[in-house]
Amino acid sequence: MYRGRLERDLAIWVGKGLIERPQADALLAEYDGRESSFSVGRALMMIAACLIAAALLLLVASNWEAIPRLMRVVLLLASIWLFHGAAAWLLANGRRGLAQSALMLGTASFGASLSLIGQMYHLSGDLADMLVVWFAFTVLTAVAFRSGAASFLCGFLAWAYFIDLVSDTPFDWSSLPGVLVPGMAAVLIGLVYYTGAARLRHLAYLLLLGWIVWSLAVEESTRAAALLAVVGAIGFLLCTLPASPLSAVAKRAGAAPAFYAFVAFLIGIGGLHMEFDDAGGRLGIGVVTMAASVGAIMLAGRDNGAVRYLAYIAFALEILYLAAETVGSILGTSGLFLVSGLVVALAAWVVIALERRMVAVTPGGVQ
Amino acid sequence: MKPSLRFALAALLVCLAQTAALAYMVLGRAAILRSGETVMLRTAPVDPRDLLRGDYVILSYDVSTVPASAISGAWPKEEGRQSLWVRLVKGADGVSTVSEAAFQPLPALAGSVVAKSLPFDYWPSDTKSDQRVSYGIERYYVPEGEGRALETARDSETLTVAVSVGGDGTAQLRALYRDGTMVYEEPLF
Question: Residue A7, Cβ neighbours under 10 Å: how many?
Fold first, then answer.
């Protein structure tokens, strides 16, 4: 990951005499000191907390009669107070890593209490209802403690809710559950900014994407697929065009926004591939896909490795698809590739010329 | 604000909110058990398992099917989420059955209890058909391993449940009977 790359690059720069050894060590030490950097101890503590949380949840599920019912309620309530109190104490004493584990256990205690009440009163309501309540209260925890770990739990609960929804309800735009999923994704993105849990972004975007795909799968219409492709393309352009008002925000969010917008576009285009399955349709869709892949590489390829590789893959798959299905005839497909190749070569020539000129006019640029 | 105070307040806020939410759920259900009207319903179980709440038996009721002929009043014209209000009247054997139902609230009448079904998806059609409804009492959680015993009881014995119905029509399981003998009873808490 990033730390390994950083270490290698620093070694190269030290070797070239660009920076001194002590400076390199200081840079690496700064990185290791960051909240988000990996620590084996913290990771093990978190895994332990996950296991204990799972044990707690299953203990409730076993409906074990050795502990009287009222006692179970009291014990779970006590553990809610104990774990949150411990988290506050640990945070006040600067033990942030342990505090995250305590919050995780506190959140699990609340979930276990919800299960217990469902069990006690035989509430036959769905798992989904319970997950929504659990999610809402975990958001409260994440906000109140500014906790990255609790934010991640929100992400997992939102996903659990979505999976439960997909597995047993037909999709319905007008129903609350259908609208709740993108709402949860929005809340998660808010948490990313508020608690600094940067990687939670992926869970949020994937949730949104999963929801879109689900709704499309239910709609099964050309219009819906085309709509997704258009929305994805607009999202991608908003993230990557320097003139767009959102590009600064998207850049700060890293590679993810442009990448997931591009994924949405490709899913939409993928859906259209199935709809337009005659020679003319394949030609049109094929040209659009290849042009979009090349465009994505030109727009975002330099700064965004994720988009670049996805575009390579999309481009390669499209060529394989067209070659296998052929546009009309093998000869016709060959002609299409020839023309495409010439167009891309022309584009490459223009870009190289532009890059040369940019370097030449930039003051201090290497000639 | 001192950080330690901030964290203590955060813990207090979260704990109070969670405790209040849990207490609200418990007290709401306990209130139905304490003051709701009790009806007996005949049922038959099967035995699955829920990841978080453990083993349970699925109870299906005679009153889960509301015959079209029993439904009075206007039927909804458009599709959407609907609830049925179902009037339950005790028969000679002590078991309650559906006497009438409506898509609008039913008035209280002596000798009967009105239960409200959970919302269900309703599609209008030209022929009025029987409606399948649930009341939120379709699962009975039991200690691990005990569900199977209830399931086998289904074939040879009759299983009945006592259900408390709150003022707003919410149903809450109260006790489970096998051939007339009580096998489980729910305390308030």
Answer: 14
Where in chain B does DSSP place strands (E)? 37-46, 49-50, 54-61, 65-66, 71-72, 80-82, 85-90, 96-102, 112-116, 120-122, 131-132, 139-141, 159-165, 171-178, 181-185
Do residue A114 and residue B22 have CB atoms under 8 angstroms apart? yes
Query: Searching chain A, which residue's CA lies closest to the CA of residue B172?
Result: A121
Q: Distance of CA A14 to CAs A9, A22, A65, A105, A133, Å? A: 9, 10, 66, 45, 54
Distance from CA of B49 to the nearest CA of A (A): 9
Nearest to A300 by CA among A347, A261, A353: A261
List of chain B residues whose C-beta atoms are within 8 Å of the C-beta of residue A122:
56, 137, 139-141, 172-173, 186
Contacts with A84 from chain B: Cβ below 8 Å: 11, 14-15
User: What predicted TM-score, i.e. pTM, was given to this entire model?
Assistant: 0.76
- State how far residue B94 is from chain A, nearest Cα, in angstroms: 23
Q: How far is CA B94 from the centre of its chain?
A: 19
Q: Does ipTM exceed 0.95?
A: no
H or E segment and range at residue B153: helix B147-156
Q: Compute the distance between CA of residue B25 and CA of residue B20 in angstroms, rounded to an integer.
A: 9
Structure tokens at A268: 């939409």
Report the alpha-carbon distance of residue A212 to residue A228 in Å, rounded: 8
Q: What is the mean pLDDT of each run of 10 residues along chain B (189 residues)?
A: 83 92 88 82 65 75 88 84 89 87 88 89 82 86 76 69 88 84 77
Give CA–CA dist A102/A145, Å, rounded.
Answer: 12
